[in-house]
Design a protein that fits this description.
The protein is mostly helical and about 160 residues long. It has a single domain, classed as MFS general substrate transporter like domains (Growth Hormone, Chain: A, Up-down Bundle), CATH 1.20.1250.20. The protein is built from six helices and no strands. It is globular.
């Protein structure tokens, strides 16, 4: 196995179902709470916290040793994703005015749509072709670490809310 979890460890349909539903359930259940916390403690601070939580969840997915660790780590990604999703549009709305705001929202929508469509496809390509063991489930989640981690400095520098 090479120290990571292989697809064979997720043979049961219950484990696979939990893995696929955990992120969406966690994200959806924490969206409103994340928005309230962002209003109370600051959007930029909460966005950065969400980015760190999401990145750590991705890293933990990449080193998962068993199905439970992978499912819990995927849930961590959902927590971070909920915080980032709830605060991102508010940060854009605060940072841009007039026509630029419309353009920023349009770019946000386009990026969100493309990433929602291509994310699972690229994750599948990564897990089937470039992982340490054939069809290693955690490799797809861990692939989000470099972009997420490199986003933090840009967020600290640019977001003004």
């Amino acid at each position: 196995m090479g120290g990571t979890l292989s697809a064979g460890a997720l043979e049961g349909p219950d484990d696979r179902r939990r893995l696929h539903r955990t992120y969406a359930l966690t994200l959806a259940s924490l969206l409103l709470t994340s928005g309230v916390l962002a209003d109370r403690y600051g959007r930029k601070l909460l966005f950065l916290i969400g980015l760190v939580i999401f990145t750590l969840g991705s890293l933990l997915c990449g080193v998962a040793q068993d199905p439970l660790m992978l499912i819990v780590s995927r849930s961590g990604q959902g927590v971070g994703g909920a915080i980032m999703f709830a605060t991102s549009l508010a940060l854009l709305g605060h940072s841009f005015r007039g026509r630029d705001r419309g353009v920023a929202f349009g770019v946000w929508g386009a990026v969100t749509g493309v990433s929602t469509a291509l994310g699972p496809v690229l994750g599948g390509v990564i897990t089937t072709n470039w992982s340490s063991s054939p069809r290693s489930w955690p490799a797809g989640s861990a692939s989000t670490c470099p972009p997420a981690g490199s986003s933090a400095p840009a967020c600290c520098w640019s977001a003004s809310a």
